[in-house]
Amino acid sequence: MNINQLKSFVEVVRSDFNITNAAEKLYTSQPTVSKQLKILEDELNVSLFNRKNNNLLSLSPIGEEVHRVACDILAQFDKIKSLVSNEDSTIKQNLRIATTHTQIRYKLPKVIERFNARYPNISLHFHQARRHNSLKWLRTGMWISLSQQSHCTCMTIY
């Protein structure tokens, strides 16, 4: 038994026992869902559905119990995925930037504020450097170098 079989089973019930509709919601084909159901029933050695010819009519008594447990398992599965997703979103990334005193003092505060609001999981680390030093810093792992020449701002990204 695997999670895809349980997903197929639960989705068929949600789709009023229409395998084609369940397959569409699962972004797969009808034969794939039918096969998943057959494998699940064979493995459990029970009939999960009441059938008439090849049509699914309703859940069998054991199918109702399995459905309840399958829904609980899928809910727990989703909790695990959410837990891991939330953990990933709390991991801070670092962005190191070499720039001049003038840039950091006068040009960047509003930009930094907007950046932090938009990307809360990225920590900015600024290092004061002169233009000729910033290229050296790029070679030692600095990711961005900002400097100003005349009226233009030069931004080197590696």
Distance between the termini: 48 Å
Which stretches are low in confidence, meaning pLDDT under 50 for 5 or more residues running?
A: 149-158
Helix content: 55-70%
Fraction of residues in β-strands:
15-25%
Number of helices: 7
Give the H and E element order: HHHEEHEHHEHEE
What is Rg? 29 Å
Strand order of the largest sheet: 4-3-5-6
Principal-axes geometry comes out as rod-shaped
Report what the structure shows:
The chain is of the alpha/beta class and 158 residues long. It has seven helices and six strands. The chain has helices at 3-14, 19-25, 30-44, 61-90, 101-107, 109-118, 131-139; strands at 49-52, 55-59, 93-99, 122-128, 144-149, 152-157. The strands form two sheets. Strands 4-3-5-6 form a four-stranded mixed β-sheet. β1 and β2 (55-59) form a beta hairpin. α1 (3-14) crosses α3 (30-44), α1 (3-14) crosses α4 (61-90) and α2 (19-25) crosses α3 (30-44). The protein is rod-shaped. The protein starts with a helix and ends with a strand. The relative contact order is 0.10. Mean pLDDT is 81; it is low at 149-158.
